[in-house]
Amino acid sequence: MLPQGMYIHIPFCQSKCQYCDFYSEPLSEHQWLEDYTAGLVVEIQQRALCCDKREISTVYFGGGTPSLLNPGQAERIINAVNEHFCLDSQAEITMEANPGSLDKIKISGYRQAGVNRISLGAQSFDDQELKMLGRRHQRSEIFTTVEELVRKGINNYNLDLMYGLPGQSVSKWEDNLDQALKLEPAHLSCYLLQLDEGTPMGQKVKSGKITLLDEDDEAEMYNLAIDKCTRAGLTQYELSNFSRPDYSCRHNLLYWRSHKYIGIGAGAVSYIADKRFKNSNDWQAYISNLKQNKLPPVEELEHMNANDKLAEIMIMGLRLCEGVNLQQTFDRCAVDVGEHFKMAIQYGMDRGWLEIKSGNLCMTRMAYFISNQVLCLFTA
Predict the structure, then answer these.
(1) Which of 164, 296, 325, 332 has the most crowded CB, counting CB atoms within 10 A?
(2) Residue extents of the structural domains in the chain
(3) For the domain bounded by 4-255, which CATH number is listed?
(4) How many percent of the chain have pLDDT more than 90?
(5) Alpha carbon distance 26, 15 (integer Å)
(6) d(CA 242, CA 226)
(7) Integer angstrom CA distances of residue 128 from 192, 194, 200, 330
(8) Residues 6+ apart with CB under 8 A from 70
(9) Among candidates 364, 113, 108, which has minimal Cα distance to 239?
């Protein structure tokens, strides 16, 4: 049976970052977190009545800033998952956190609650870059937070880094990578800055106040990340993600392998029984509904037909360096991928973008930076 994960959305932040277009709300009253936690517990209970009760192999607290939860609130949520579903005894339980938002008491409390992986939004080791991004922490807080995580026995942690920042040089990006790799993280994620027009930074780009880097510089930074991570013993397993052996993010692998997941919380997305749906972003309506033991209103609903599912398996799976296993895809979809996408595959192979290795269709390294162009070949 295929594994199943649970994503828990905490939409609150202390303040919104300049580049962020995810759903989040500034937290002005801590009672909101208490009411919201109570709502999450009820939604978990209600979802269990109508969802597949198969084992939950991963739990991921995302946001927003999930580390605004106190350890007691995190424990209540995890206990609810364990009570109403079947939580794997070896489940990966990840908490996203910002440097500076974790102290030794909170880290100990999270660990006691069951959290065994932290994803730390470092983004940069340069204080000027952090200020430009609207981050609340300074570089020194990244080091102290990592030191405390290791001291408390959480060695499975990820560092998020961003590259392609306005005004960022290749040498400055290299310094960021060096600082991150000196900490010897189990996992490193390197993301190219992508700006939506609706964000403050996006507006500054539109008005000409700041300028993004050209594509050649971005590509050089990306390839530098691959080379330096590889030399440091981190294996690239996805376009933007690197890990030590056995430390790949199991939760995100569920997405990339098109497995089922249950989304809990305002704005959370679920993929269950060939349907993808999204809870309403209105966190106040979310709490109000669940106080009445009613599931939150659904904002979007998509029914996945056979072609949709196959296209998703290809588009998500090709993000992985291992690629898409052709036999497993046939077993899941009863479709011969090589025949169904014959022209697309041949087009990609002729250009050196695609190859077949050990029964897997995968992208070549030269295609990684232009992956969106390659993945478009497999749209439904």
Answers:
(1) 296
(2) 4-255, 324-378
(3) 3.20.20.70
(4) 81
(5) 5
(6) 8
(7) 18, 19, 17, 50
(8) 33, 106, 109
(9) 364
Q: Could you please report the per-residue DSSP string of 268-279? A: -EEEETTEEEEE
Residue 305 clears pLDDT 60, i.e. is over it: yes
- CA pair distance 217, 168, nearest whole angstrom: 9
Classified as helix, coil or strand, 224 is helix
Handedness of CA 131, 134, 139, 140 (dihedral sign): positive
Q: CB 120: neighbour CB atoms within 10 A?
A: 25
**Which tokens sit at 293?**
């033991």
Measured CA to CA in angstroms, residue 36 lies from 58, 167, 185, 263, 370 at distances of 21, 40, 32, 15, 40
Residue pair 177/223 in contact (Cβ under 8 Å)? The answer is no
User: Is the Cβ–Cβ distance between 45 and 80 less than 8 Å?
Assistant: yes
Cβ pair 161, 191 in contact under 8 A? yes
Residue type, 187: H
Q: How far lies 31's CA from each of 12, 37, 107, 191, 207, in Å?
A: 12, 10, 22, 34, 39
The predicted model gives 212-231 an average pLDDT of: 96
pLDDT tens-digit readout, 194-217: 877 777 777 887 788 888 889 999
